[in-house]
TrEMBL record:
Its EC number is 2.7.13.3. The keyword Acyltransferase does not apply. Residues 86-277 form the Histidine kinase domain. This is histidine kinase. GO terms for biological process: phosphorelay signal transduction system. It catalyses: ATP + protein L-histidine = ADP + protein N-phospho-L-histidine. The keyword Methyltransferase does not apply. SUPFAM superfamilies: ATPase domain of HSP90 chaperone/DNA topoisomerase II/histidine kinase.
């Protein structure tokens, strides 16, 4: 009798555990479905408590989500590059003759000192200003090919820190960690992130390595309604912003087969976290 009772207890406990395990798997499937539906491909669900087969499947799904995010970012970057290339070409074609003709009129002695000079000069300065404005955006479509080298990441970030001595820095990167990347491009990306953080009122930067490079700051948080727009070229919430810093930074990383994204949740103690993956 005792043996039968013990057996029944074991069966009840097993099926209770099995049912709970299946509920957890169902919840995981729901979370991943919602993440994909909302185009949040940076999801990474934990593998603790899973059997080896389930763990391997979850790890593969985590990596697949990241790969999909990188591919979408690459396609988005290429689309913006094509659009920027066309727009800059058409605008330059329209403004260059205006600038040349207006300059010719300004050089004409018959125009100097007349009532027409001020108007012609305004046309000339406006056309030149527009040409310079457009030319500054050509960099979005004309990035150089990256030169990939292996760099010691801790020493590299330390050199960035020296550029901003007024900020408090927390750097947690093992000395053995290296990154295969274009050094100049990565430097520009980090400088852009720190510059944006300073403009948002940050006083502290946190840079850490957790299989990827996480860059956090304690400046003003990014509003939820603009999180999806921050990498769109020319989008800015700043009064005098150009809207190319983050877009250009992401393009630099995508050109290297990497990505730059905004973390779904910032590192505890900070308001904003970006991930270079």
């Amino acid at each position: 009798m005792i043996l039968i009772v013990s057996f029944l207890v074991v069966v009840v406990v097993f099926f209770g555990w099995f049912y709970r395990h299946q509920v957890l798997l169902r919840d995981r499937a729901h979370l991943m479905r919602e993440a994909i539906r909302n185009e949040e491909f940076t999801f990474r669900l934990p593998v603790k408590g899973l059997f080896f087969g389930e763990r391997a499947l979850q790890e593969a799904l985590n990596e697949t989500g990241k790969d999909i995010g990188v591919l979408l970012a690459r396609n988005e970057v290429e689309s913006w590059q094509r659009l920027t290339r066309v727009l800059t070409h058409e605008i330059m074609n329209a403004t260059t003759p205006i600038a040349s003709i207006s300059q010719a009129y300004l050089d004409n002695p018959a125009i100097a000192g007349t009532v027409y000079e001020e108007g012609v000069r305004a046309i000339h300065e406006t056309s030149r200003g527009l040409a310079l404005f457009v030319d500054s955006y050509r960099k979005l479509a004309e990035l150089q090919e990256p030169v990939l080298v292996e760099i010691p990441l801790a020493a590299f970030v330390e050199r960035i820190r020296t550029l901003y001595p007024d900020l408090e820095w927390h750097i947690s990167i093992p000395l053995a960690v290296t990154m295969f990347t274009d050094e100049n491009m990565l430097r520009q990306v980090l400088i852009n992130l720190v510059k944006n953080a300073c403009e948002a009122g940050a006083t502290t930067m946190d840079v850490r390595w957790y299989k990827e490079l996480w860059i956090s700051n304690n400046g003003a948080p990014i509003p939820a309604d603009v999180e999806r727009e921050i990498f769109v070229p020319f989008f800015t919430t700043k009064k005098n912003g150009s809207g190319i810093g983050l877009s250009l930074s992401r393009q630099m990383m995508v050109r290297q087969g990497r990505d730059l994204c905004l973390a779904e949740r910032p590192v505890p103690g900070f308001q904003v976290t970006f991930i270079v993956s």
